[in-house]
Amino acid sequence: MNKVKQGARTFLFPMPSVLVGATVDGKPNFMTVAWCGIASHQPPTVAVAIRKGRHTLKGIEAHHCFSVNVPTSKMVKLVDFCGIYSGKDRDKANLFTVKPGDNPLVPLVDECPVNLECTLLHTLDLGSHTLVVGQITQSHVREDCIEGKKIDPLNVDPLIYATSSETYHRLGEVVGNAFSVGKEF
After folding, report:
1. Which residue range(s) make up the domain with 167?
2. Burial class (CB in 10 A: 0-12, 13-18, 19+), 116
3. Amino acid 173: pLDDT
């Protein structure tokens, strides 16, 4: 099948929709970020791209710490709300049960089944966005998302965003076991 050139676009699937939290002007604030991913195994790091001028970025730069909260697909309306409205204009912390992490300046969304506490390692100006790289200092996972000793992503039910269609999704069926199915080739 032929392919159609689309130019330089941000087509990478899936993209998790997460809530990035920071303390801004003494209050917890959360924003929606879809441009997020694990950046390193050792030390464990996560990278999020945040548009310049965002209220939450101000708190990250001031305190050098933040949280990445993984919402469920059932939280889609709250997550979208946090992406539409700025913490400069709306108090979004009152939408959630907010708990402090081990670092009291790192606000966590209790309703999210996975929370990552991060210490700021680097920022990088990328044009429209600032890449924020944080070392994960603590992970909090809801008990019902753990099967044996592993996290079951279907139990987490993370919210996924598709840039090209501007729609939200959830994870689907398992199609193979990593580091195993390729041996059948």
Report:
1. 15-184
2. buried
3. 87
